[in-house]
Structure formats: C-alpha cells, structure tokens
C-alpha cells in the first residue's frame, strides 16, 4: 500500500467528494426502498432459425439460434423477473411430421427449463410458425393456420398455460382470474372457427392484468381477437386492475426501417388494425409483440393523441429483418430483450438490452417510464 501525503485542502476536497457520493448512494437506496419493485417481467420473441442459413450441426437439427437465445436467457436470469413472456416463433414448425414438431418444442422447452428452476415462470405466446402450415389450395401453395397445429401447440405448451400451483411455487405469489374457458368463442364476431383455449387467454397477478392473444386463428390469419380482448380488458378494469399488458406475436404497426416495405403485421387489414389499436388505447394498455425480427418501441397513435405503446422485441435470435445496409440505426441489427418493472407507486419502468451480431458487450438500448 502506498500512503500519499495530503494537505488540509486536499483532505477537505476528498472528504467532500466522498460525502457527495455517500449521499447519492443513500438517496438512491432510499428511492428504491420508498418505491420498491413489486413485480417484474421480461419479454422477447422469435428465436427460431431458418433452414439453409449458416448453422451449426446442432442448430440445423433443432432450427434454433442456440447461441443467441441462451445468452438472452442468461441475461434475463440475472435480472430475476417473475415471468418471461415469449412472443411466438420459438420453433420453425412448418412441418407435417408431429415427431419433428415435438422435437423442436422439446429443445426450446429444455433451453427454458433453467429459468423455471430459478424463479422465472415462462409464458408462451403462439406465433405463426407454431400455428400455421404449408398447404396447397386451388393448385397454389400457401401458408395458413391449421387446427392440427393448434392442437400441437396445446400438446407441447398447454401445461404452462396456466399452472397456478407452479406459478406460486416459482414466484412465491399467486395468479388469479385465469379461466381456460375465457377464450374467443367459435362463431363470435372475431371470426373464430376453432377452439382457442390456451391460445388466447388472460390472468391477473397482483394489480396487473396480462392478456395473451393468438394473431393467426384458423380461417382468419393475421387478425387479433379484438372483440374478445375488449371485453376481457374491460372486465379486468372492473376488477380494479391498474395495469394492462397485452402480448401477441404479430405487430399491430409495421416498423418501416427502410423504404418500400409492405405491412407485415395486423396492418395488412387497416380497418381491423384500427379497431384493435382503439381497444389498446381505451384500456391504456401496452402491446408487446414480435414477428418482425427487430427491436423498436413506438407510440403509433401519438399524432392523434394516443398514449399507448407498442414494444416490438422480435429480436430473440431469428435472422435479422434488416439486412446489412438496410438501416443506419445500429439497434436494428441487434439481439434484444426487455424487462418491465412495476413499482409500488404504480410506476411502470422498462429497460431494453441488446448485443450485436458479433456478440459484443451487452448495451442498454432504451430506458423509459410508461
């Protein structure tokens, strides 16, 4: 140890600096104590790989970006959220062989298992790669949602939707208001043709309401169950829920990161998109989604007085939507995820983190209060 001689002025200066630092630390600690985090959740989507990409031998079998997703999982684990909402496209799918589908689901479930063992309940959200299939109609090949794929989803994910006992064991607290029968009904105004149980569902946790929607129901691909969601959110408000969060796979508003793009979400049907977003705005809800393999946060209706946010985190490992040179925004080619903290005061805070395609240092991409 080297001892440095200091003058009285230097000692006074050092003491002042240390005093200011101590006061700042005490102030920060007091703020945390005065308004503690009562619940937190993480969210991300789209980790599946693409056949034909430059994949490892392992990922060619499972069609999963193991390296990207496993790092995201580790970083989420460090934050210790009560839940992770995974916004669809966790498998590649598009395969008629049940054994192949089950294998892909099993691999993804295996990657998530450690989160479930360390205090984070994983809530899956169906995406197009889970519920759609390649079919031939009128001599033409296309992709469309299929009842068989919805059944495969329930077979592989149904035990998570929702296991109240396991949630309490994992998080230490209970969910409420979950009813497997509370799902869009066949023949209703949302054009539902098949059983939507465990595809669109909702529950309460504390004073917050969480709704998951299937954005590709059979026969009405690329549409949200808007009428069911409106009633569900209104009932949650009647129960006194202070926060409402909605999770779906397809984004309500396409993020146009380059010229010439076509709508890739619910905005392919402008009228239905308008009705859906009005439900979100009326409830003061936040919509979390994926599908577009990119990170972006926006207030889509801000120009007309809207206050709700769309949080797009389709950046869990799937091939980037933005190719090299498509965008000057560096976060458009980053693997990213978000964590949301709910405070005792009612404040809702979001931090989004990400790392680049070269797996460099993780960065804080966005920090904001809703």
Describe this protein's structure:
The protein has 370 residues and is α/β, with parallel strands linked by helices. The protein has a single domain, classed as 4-Layer Sandwich (Purple Acid Phosphatase, chain A, domain 2). Helices cover 32% and strands 24% of the residues. The protein contains 9 helices and 15 strands. The chain has a 7-stranded mixed sheet. Strands 3-2-1-13-14-15 form a 6-stranded mixed sheet.
CATH class: Alpha Beta
Strand percent estimate:
15-25%
Which homologous superfamily in CATH is the superfamily? Metallo-dependent phosphatases
CATH overall fold name: Purple Acid Phosphatase, chain A, domain 2
Give a summary of the structure in a few sentences:
The protein has helices spanning 8-34, 57-62, 66-79, 98-117, 128-131, 147-157, 164-171, 226-238, 270-283; strands at residues 37-44, 83-86, 121-124, 132-137, 140-145, 175-176, 201-205, 208-212, 243-250, 286-290, 295-298, 310-313, 334-343, 348-356, 363-369.
Record keyword descriptors for this entry.
6-stranded mixed β-sheet; Purple Acid Phosphatase, chain A, domain 2; about 25% strand; 7-stranded mixed β-sheet; alpha/beta; disordered N terminus; about 30% helix
SSE arrangement:
Blueprint: H1 8-34, E1 37-44, H2 57-62, H3 66-79, E2 83-86, H4 98-117, E3 121-124, H5 128-131, E4 132-137, E5 140-145, H6 147-157, H7 164-171, E6 175-176, E7 201-205, E8 208-212, H8 226-238, E9 243-250, H9 270-283, E10 286-290, E11 295-298, E12 310-313, E13 334-343, E14 348-356, E15 363-369
Parallel strand pairs: 1-2, 2-3, 8-9, 9-10, 10-12
Antiparallel strand pairs: 1-13, 4-5, 6-7, 7-8, 11-12, 13-14, 14-15
Helix pairs in contact: 8-9
């Amino acid at each position: 140890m080297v001892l440095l001689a200091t003058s009285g002025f230097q000692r006074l200066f050092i003491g002042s600096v240390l005093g200011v630092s101590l006061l700042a630390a005490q102030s920060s600690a007091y703020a945390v104590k005065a308004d503690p985090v009562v619940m937190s959740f993480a969210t991300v989507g789209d980790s599946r790989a693409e056949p034909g990409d430059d994949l490892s031998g392992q990922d060619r079998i499972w069609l999963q970006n193991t390296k990207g997703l496993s790092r995201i999982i580790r970083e989420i684990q460090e934050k210790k959220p009560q839940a992770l909402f995974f916004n669809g496209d966790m498998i590649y799918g598009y395969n008629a062989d049940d054994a192949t589908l089950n294998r892909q689901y099993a691999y993804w479930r295996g990657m998530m298992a450690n989160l479930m063992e360390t205090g984070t309940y994983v809530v899956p959200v169906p995406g197009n790669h889970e519920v759609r299939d390649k079919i031939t109609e009128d001599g033409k090949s296309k992709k469309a949602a299929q009842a068989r794929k919805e059944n495969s989803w329930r077979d592989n994910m149904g035990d998570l939707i929702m296991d109240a006992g396991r949630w309490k064991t994992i998080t230490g607290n209970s969910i409420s208001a979950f009813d497997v029968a509370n799902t869009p009904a066949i023949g209703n105004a949302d054009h539902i043709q098949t059983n939507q149980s465990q595809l669109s569902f909702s529950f309460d946790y504390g004073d917050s309401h969480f709704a998951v929607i299937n954005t590709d129901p059979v026969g009405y691909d690329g549409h949200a169950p808007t009428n069911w969601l409106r009633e569900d959110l209104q009932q949650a408000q009647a129960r006194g829920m202070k926060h409402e969060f909605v999770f779906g796979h397809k984004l309500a508003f396409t993020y146009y990161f380059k010229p010439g793009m076509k709508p890739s979400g619910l905005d392919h049907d402008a009228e239905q998109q308008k009705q859906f977003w009005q439900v979100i705005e009326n409830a003061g809800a936040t919509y979390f989604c994926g599908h577009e393999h990119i990170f972006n946060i926006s207030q889509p209706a801000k120009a007309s007085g809207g206050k709700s946010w769309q949080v797009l985190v389709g950046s869990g490992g799937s091939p980037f939507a933005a190719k090299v040179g498509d965008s000057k925004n560096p976060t458009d080619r980053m693997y990213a995820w978000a964590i949301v903290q709910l405070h005792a005061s009612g404040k809702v805070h979001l931090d989004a983190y990400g790392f680049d395609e070269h797996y460099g240092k993780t960065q804080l991409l966005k920090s904001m209060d809703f």
